Amino acid sequence: xxxxxxxxxxxxxxxxxxxxxxxxxxxxxxxxxxxxxxxxxxxxxxxxxxxxxxxxxxxxxxxxxxxxxxxxxxxxxxxxxxxxxxxxxxxxxxxxxxxxxxxxxxxxxxxxxxxxxxxxxxxxxxxxxxxxxxxxxxxxxxxxxxxxxxxxxxxxxxxxxxxxxxxxxxxxxxxxxxxxxxxxxxxxxxxxxxxxxxxxxxxxxxx
Length: 207
What we know:
The chain is 34% helix and 16% strand. It is built from seven helices and eight strands, in the order E-H-E-E-H-E-H-H-H-E-H-E-H-E-E.
């Protein structure tokens, strides 16, 4: 099956917690996030998500459980033919929800991330920082209990990185557990938060 990317990790993500996941490129940060998002299953070992062993959850139930976890991808994964508003509303739209039930939530969320004036703009027109904030808003539209962010400041300048960090901290204060995968030491040094460091497939935790 090839070499193990991660091995012998033991950790938890407490409710309402805030932590950085770091380590060198290729250490397995994205793989670990995918395991936490339940889009990947371990080849051995146990992962419990919201008290349930993910290997024993019926496939049909996984989408419902994943709604409790928001994820911000490193490459944004926005649809270029949809507006800012439509990209954020997409998770609700594909589930068949009536727009009247979520329109105000989407607009409020876009204001919260500072994009209230950009709701009708297409992604190709947006800056890197704006795209990142659209991706954050989309990850939050289902009001997840955990937010996973994969290198959220990798494509923005330092002032925007600080602004994004402020958004994550505010979200955490509102009760969401946050996991930020990053190699940006300057970003991590701005706050006193738990650090989970991946090296050679193993994890060290510093509270």
